[in-house]
Amino acid sequence: MDDALQTYLDGIAPEHRPLFDRLQRLILEVHPDAEVGIAYQMPSYKVGKRRVSLGVWQHGLSIYGWRENQDVAFLARHPELKTGKGTIKLGPGQAEAISDDEFRSLFAGALEP
User: Fold this and answer.
1) CB atoms < 10 A from the CB of 41, how many?
2) pLDDT-derived band of residue 73, with 50, 70 and 90 as boundaries?
């Protein structure tokens, strides 16, 4: 793990760390071969030319780089989470209502070649 990634991880607020850890675990379950590093000043998971990033902010956590056309069912079930093209914004408690399988499907589609 490089220093920039470790610094980012060490700086995650305790109230956001469980969600970050959960999503990172799910990404790596779907793609254990993902290269983990820093891109755009946040943790990034790269498989081939595809990349998903997790950004921790005051509001909670954002997922960047997922492909809207790959998992339209996720957006149909959770339209309130989409805040921009390729951005899903999770506030406190919102992720609790989303199963691990839904997130796995989202990440599998995002990192699929």
Assistant:
1) 10
2) confident
Q: What's the whole-model pTM score?
A: 0.89
The pair of three-digit structure tokens given for residue 79, joined into one six-digit string:
């339209």
Contacts of 3 (CB under 8 A, 6+ apart): none
Mean of pLDDT values over 37-46: 94
Q: Specify whether the CB–CB gap between 20 and 14 falls below 8 A.
A: no
- Pseudo-torsion of CA 52, 25, 74, 109, nearest 10°? 50
Please check whether residue 98 is in contact with residue 63, taking contact to mean a CB–CB distance below 8 angstroms: no
In one-letter notation, the amino acid at residue 80 is: E
Q: Quick check: 64 and 32 in contact, CB under 8 A?
A: no
**Would you say domain 3-111 falls under CATH 3.90.1150.200?**
yes
Residue written as token pair 């997790």: 54
